[in-house]
Amino acid sequence: MSHSPRPQDLEAYLDEALPAGEMSRLEDAIRADVQLRAQLALIHSRRDAGVHSLGEIWRRHRLSCPAREQLGSYLLGVLVGEAAEYVRFHLEVVGCRLCQANRADLEAQQREAAEHVSSRRRKYFQSSAGYLRAK
Asked: Which residues are CB-contacts of 10 (< 8 A; sequence separation ≥ 6)?
């Protein structure tokens, strides 16, 4: 961050809603600047006191994030139209780290499931190979 962090930057930092590089630069700035640490502590204490704006509530509860089921449907290619476009936009343009992590987890589960099915088929074939007749 080449500029002094704005309050919304610090809010996003607390929500872990910034790109990884920006999170890292802001963390370095916070470690080096006593005033930034005090500002961050003030924001954090305000949150704990229950003083929230509508935007803060929206971000904290991730109301714009698609459900995990929607992410799964998107990965399978069965989510269509505006819903699919929204998920693509949310992942690729907004760059939501939580949803990207969910997507990575779902992709890993898909790979594991595919490997399990392949392994199971191979075992069935090997166990029945002696029962097959040659023509």
From this structure: 26, 36, 39, 40, 43
Q: Which of 1, 14, 22 is nearest to 43 (CA)?
A: 14
Q: How many Cα atoms occupy the beta-carbon half-sphere of 5 within 13 Å? A: 27
Q: What is the rounded CA–CA span in Å between residue 91 and residue 105? A: 14
pTM of the model: 0.54
Integer Rg of the chain from CA: 23
Rounded CA gap, 87 and 77, in Å? 12
Encode pLDDT of 20-79 as tens digits. Answer: 889 899 999 999 999 999 999 998 888 777 666 776 777 777 788 999 999 999 999 999
Q: Which residue has the tokens 């006191």?
A: 49
Pick from 115, 3, 107, 17: nearest CA to 60: 17
Amino acid making up residue 123 = K
